[in-house]
Amino acid sequence: MNHERVGNLSTLAPCLVDTGVVVNKADMLRLLQDLGQVSYSHLEDNVALSTGQGMVMEVFADPQQATLVANHTLYINVHSFDYLEMGKGDGEQSHFDLVQDNRRLRLVPLSDPIKDHLSRSVNTAAFEAMVADALSASWDACLDDDRNFFE
Fold this sequence. Notes:
Number of domains: 2
Strand order of the largest sheet: 1-6-7-8-2-3-5-4
Helix content: 25-40%
Oligomer: single chain
Number of strands: 8
């Protein structure tokens, strides 16, 4: 394998598959932004403080804002955490642990990103077809009105 090295930058970017620790905030954003519906556990010193299910509404990076989990919604700020630990639990279910000191916010995806993506693609295509039909009908109606006006 031939790798082109620039100066003394001889390190390659990490490659993590299903397990590992992610410290880069941009990588954390990419991993979390498409989670959809999740089961979550808020742990401190490995003691569960709260658990529930919710929808990841937004994932962002802003040192001035909080991570919020309330009313079955999650607004996750990657700057609230030191790193993300990804792994697999029982039954090979993926989980993402957002870690800050002795506190963890464990997210277990409940939705399937492949099915969600396919569903969004189908919904987008159906919406585009409806808009095209509506525009076509509107143009037809305008042409009919013009014909009646000039007769």
